[in-house]
Amino acid sequence: MEAARLDFQQLRIKHILYKSKVRSFLYGGTFDASFFSSAGPIDIWFSTVGKIRYAQEPEILQLIRLHQQMNEIALNLYKLYSKGLIEQAHDGLKEVDFRSDQFIQILSGLDERLQKV
């Protein structure tokens, strides 16, 4: 299952980049609308790798759901930030961090489980 390990490492890296992009726009960086759309790298990974190679794994659906939730939160934080409600937007990062921790935990569990097979 070395291919799975590489696939999940790719997703982990994309997720870390995602979280970094959220922080970036909340601290004055440019908001990249396409990155936070269905054409973003994580959504593409799910549609080209996750839903194809790992469709039978229940964790994939959990990860997709978590990513969608994080995306909704990120877009709401951007709206707050755009309206000048910067403190509230920054406070919302706690929710992003919480969901990110869940995402990494589920992904790591899936990776470990498939390595044992």
Description:
- With 117 residues, the protein is mainly alpha-helical.
- It has one domain.
- It has 5 helices and no strands.
- It has helices spanning 2-26, 41-53, 58-82, 86-91, 93-116.
- Helix 1 packs antiparallel against helix 2 and helix 3 runs antiparallel to helix 5 (93-116).
- It starts with a helix and ends with a helix.
- The mean pLDDT is 96.
Please describe the structure with a list of short key phrases separated by commas or semicolons.
117 residues, mainly alpha, 5 helices
Give a topology summary.
Layout lengths: L1 H25 L14 H13 L4 H25 L3 H6 L1 H24 L1
Helix pairs in contact: 1-2, 1-5, 3-5
Please state the CA-atom Rg, rounded to the nearest Å: 15 Å
User: Which stretches are low in confidence, meaning pLDDT under 50 for 5 or more residues running?
Assistant: none
Terminal-residue CA separation: 8 Å
DSSP strand tally: 0
| Average pLDDT | 96
Shape: elongated
Count the domains: 1
What's the order of the H and E elements? HHHHH
Which structural class should the secondary elements be placed in? mainly alpha
What's the total helix number?
A: 5
Question: What summary fits the major beta sheet?
Answer: none
Name the helicity range: over 70%
